[in-house]
């Protein structure tokens, strides 16, 4: 299914950047190159550097920035390197460019900070940060300017951080379409352990069960198992570093999850025992409660109803569906696509506000669309 003749597919005109001067990006992988693409689109002078000449050349060829020059005088330096060398590169950049603001985008914040403090590095112009964005694939070839849009960007300042420097890092996040959030390094690492690092491990552990599963079992895979294991395709080399740097908080969450799994296993071994069914029900209910706490669109805790539409798997159909919904004045709050194995159609799971469900169903059916299901009562 392809989206044709849609205004949503055309990029918006660039705005004036908040970030001024040259931005030096050290590391031209997924995050570094994506930052470079976004800033370059705004007209910012982006100088790229990388220990891998081929990776650097690839990022430059794709338009993420230019090669670093000896006379560069960057106003902002973004360190986007693997976690095991983040502290080393931050220290080097602070010494080479003592007047520049230096930030990093590593997914762990406390370990590099501790290392730098132990070395006695002057951290006046350093501000750790972390965009909560990414893709399953890495490298410059997977970079995209829009991966930060609407995503949180954690900024870890302290009482010694100059207001001017803080404004530079927040301007970077805003220019990339992200939402800056201030957190301490300790709170950040505890938060990403729960919201990112443990989900990665859970997805990987579940997906590992598929390795020895019969082919017939795998043919039953639906959207639920694909959603649950999507991030299991991530790079092992990078995750070994991330998990090692945030081992304590991750282990604490895993211990709690392991205890819950043990309780569920005990209940399933004796499902007729007193309290066993209640234990299972409570487990599912706590999951319901947790999902309800997750922020929805625009950070709101607003819940939506779902309309599932059958869409023929041929060019232009998804665009036609969106066009019909637009004519019906039904706003699509979220969208998920599922392809049925062996079938020449897909299922478009469209989230809408509750009061729009009935008009959407009636209007779509009158235009020839088949409604597969709905969560509306």
TrEMBL record:
Instruction: Check the record and name the Gene3D superfamilies matching this protein.
Output: 6-phosphogluconate dehydrogenase C-terminal like domain, NAD(P)-binding Rossmann-like Domain
Does Protein transport count among this protein's keywords?
no
Pathway membership, UniProt: Amino-acid biosynthesis
Q: Which Enzyme Commission number(s) are listed?
A: 1.3.1.12
Q: What is this protein called?
A: Prephenate dehydrogenase
- Tell me the ranges covered by the Prephenate/arogenate dehydrogenase domain, including all copies: 21-298
Write down the InterPro entries for this protein, in alphabetical order. 6-PGluconate_DH-like_C_sf (IPR008927), ACT-like_dom_sf (IPR045865), NAD(P)-bd_dom_sf (IPR036291), PDH_C (IPR046825), PDH_N (IPR046826), Preph/Arog_dehydrog (IPR050812), Prephen_DH (IPR003099)
Q: Which family does it belong to?
A: Belongs to the prephenate/arogenate dehydrogenase family.
A Pfam match is PDH_N
A molecular-function term among this protein's GO annotations = prephenate dehydrogenase (NAD+) activity
Tell me the keywords, alphabetical order.
Amino-acid biosynthesis, Aromatic amino acid biosynthesis, Oxidoreductase
Q: What class of enzyme is it?
A: oxidoreductase
